[in-house]
Amino acid sequence: MLPKPGIYYFPWEVSDGHVPDGSTLRTFGRLCLYDMARSLVTLTAKHKSDQYQLLVCTKLVEPFQAQVDSLYMVLGELEHEEDGGSVVKARVLTCVEGMNLSLLEQAICEQRLYQQKRDKKGIATTSTYQTLPPAPEPLQTPEEQRGRCPFPE
């Protein structure tokens, strides 16, 4: 049986414990530390004025060329540890340096809104997707967001 597809979570949602244990997830962050001896990577992400850290186990993706201060995307399973922390067991760890993070965050929010609207309409689905987290409140009005969007509507 194939593993479940990963649901996009923001790094601050994972760090704050909003993701259930064993969930398959996708998230992102800047690689700030690679401990080869323990097969652990520390990803960081800023949200508003806070800095969040996320531990990623790299045993399944080694060897890989770690590029410190580069942006990475990870697909894996979340495991909560006894000390209260959590680790993502990476199945895929990809350097995505140069990706526009603000557009990714906007796309994740739009995906969540679409899923919520679809669920409200009662459209039955047989997909293996996990329940998506609620879409965050937009920081800007849709009109302001359209002004930033480089894609035609």
From TrEMBL:
Signal peptide: none annotated. GO terms for molecular function: single-stranded DNA binding; telomerase inhibitor activity; telomeric DNA binding. GO terms for cellular component: CST complex; nucleoplasm. Residues 127-153 are annotated as: Disordered. Pfam families: Ten1_2. GO terms for biological process: negative regulation of telomere maintenance via telomerase. It is found in: Chromosome, Telomere; Nucleus. Keywords: Chromosome, DNA-binding, Nucleus, Telomere. It comes from the Eukaryota. Its main location: nucleus. Belongs to the TEN1 family. This is CST complex subunit TEN1. It comes from Nannospalax galili (Northern Israeli blind subterranean mole rat). The lineage of its organism: Eukaryota, Metazoa, Chordata, Craniata, Vertebrata.
